[in-house]
Amino acid sequence: MLRKNPSGDFPVVHETAFVDPTAILCGKVEVGENVFIGPYAVIRADEVNADGTMEPIIIGANSNIQDGVVIHSKDGAAVTIGANTSVAHRSIVHGPCRIGNNVFIGFNSVLFNCVVHDTAVVRHNSVVDGVEIPAGFYVTSMTRVSKDTDLAKLPQTDKATRDFSESVMLTNVSLATAYRRIRNDF
């Protein structure tokens, strides 16, 4: 479901993207080409800052927002998700937040007030709060990364992890195409 926010902003969805009918996109949301937005995802850009304005939530080309993901932002701050990025089932991305290109965010992860640079991986059930994850870094499952975390101790992503991330992205791009093709059948 696409709907306006109280400021009158309406989502802009590229014609090649697929938004599941059970997903809710509200307000100043921009969805790029070949994006897949899965069942029960909620992407809501409706809070304003002290000046009464807000930045958009942007989902880059070929990215996927899987089932049950929630993306929102405090006080109208920007949320940007780059190209070829996967945000897996039931994750929460709460702005201000910037996620780079070719990133994988694992199931049930929570990101708030952070930057996750290109090719980084945040595995399942992790929390990233108030920090920048450098490009190519790997956050293992069940890890909490905050200002107290020594980022130098985080490992780099390896080829198998990068290959897995790419395969998830490619699978979901193909799902966007397949679901668009049958959208009138349900």
From TrEMBL:
GO MF: acyltransferase activity
Pfam families in alphabetical order: Hexapep
Superkingdom: Bacteria
This protein's UniProt keywords: Acyltransferase, Repeat, Transferase
Record protein name field: Carbonate dehydratase
